[in-house]
Amino acid sequence: MNKKITTTAILIGSSIATIHIINRVHTSLCTVKNLLANSENYYYEWRFGKIRYQKKGNGSPLLLVHDLSAGSSNYEYHRLINNLTEKHEIYSIDLLGYGLSDKPSMTYTNNLYEQMICDFVKNIIGKKTSVIVTGESVPFIIMACHNNPEIFNKIVCINPQNLYLQNQIPSKQTNLLKFLFEVPILGTFVYHILNNKHTMEKAFKENYFFHPEEVKEKYIYNYLEAAHYGNYYAKFAFASYIAKYMNTNILHELKEINNSILIIGGQEEKDIEVTVENYKYYNPAIEEVYIPGTKHLPQLEAPDAILEQLDMFL
Question: Which of 29, 51, 232, 258 lies at 20 to 30 Å from 149 by C-alpha?
């Protein structure tokens, strides 16, 4: 009996050690190119960790806020930034838990990001700021602008999340998933299975771009690096995202907000027209425009068309 217990313990220990090695190797392979590092990186010492940002240009302040999907970072806007610097002072950030920003072991929520954005504008930018924001980050920008109207100017929302999906809250099932991802070694292994080169490439070709042939390998590798920078700490924001802790109801804020708002939709994004109509139902002053031949990331797929709209609106 003791021999069986010992053998079982050895097998379990060996398996855990093997998975741990696989995790370390996978992380190293995903980050070895060091694509996100450059001399233009700055860091804001926020109370929950360092926030990486880039600052360029002169003119009215413009803050760029990326989406919340795995691998998102300020790289999402790299095809826009240099073309905006003649008229704007650009601040392009990595949210806490993403990119090269710190990734503490904690629960990430919409309110956390609202506080982060407001503190960043007050302490780093120091002037009334316009914002460009993508996807599932739209809700906390709407909340921030509603609660602190004195520090925000115009808002550009690229493919905002469906209002119904934003209302979904954590459940027993999603909390179980969060617990699974946060388990040492095994949770990291599952995170790596869901966020590897194949799954990232699939996301780009099926969800982010309408023309899959336009997806460049460097996009995939930059997202892959952002999703794994910080070793196993990279999984904690993803765990909160999957568990729906980043969701929130913004109907009240959307009704009352007075900022000028432009929604830019990828014309081929699923249900985007319905989503935009829902936003306009609660705030009829919202303007809209659709970029032909694009899906979720038109700023990567059709940057010239986005720049044209930004030039007119901002």
Answer: 51
pLDDT at 255 over 90: yes
Cβ atoms < 10 Å from Cβ of 23 = 21
Beta bridge partners of 287: 262
CA atoms of 20 and 96, how far apart (whole Å): 25
Q: Report the C-alpha gap between 148 and 117 in whole angstroms.
A: 11
Q: How far apart are CA 133 and CA 136, in angstroms?
A: 9
Q: What is the pLDDT of residues 106-155, one digit of tens each?
A: 999 999 999 999 999 999 999 999 999 999 999 999 999 999 999 999 99
* Digit-coded pLDDT (tens) for 167-184: 888 999 999 999 999 999
CA angle 222, 32, 44 (to 5 degrees): 60
Number of H helices, E strands in the chain: 14, 8
Q: Which residue, among 48, 50, 47, 156, has the nearest Cα to 99 in the 3D structure?
A: 50
Residue of 94, 110, 106 lying closest to 50 (CA atoms):
94
Count of other CB atoms within 10 angstroms of residue 225: 22
Which H or E run contains 296? none
pLDDT in tens, 32-62: 788 888 767 899 999 999 999 999 999 999 9
Find, among 261, 247, 314, 310, the residue nearest to 77 by Cα.
310
What tokens appear for 25 in the block? 């190797």
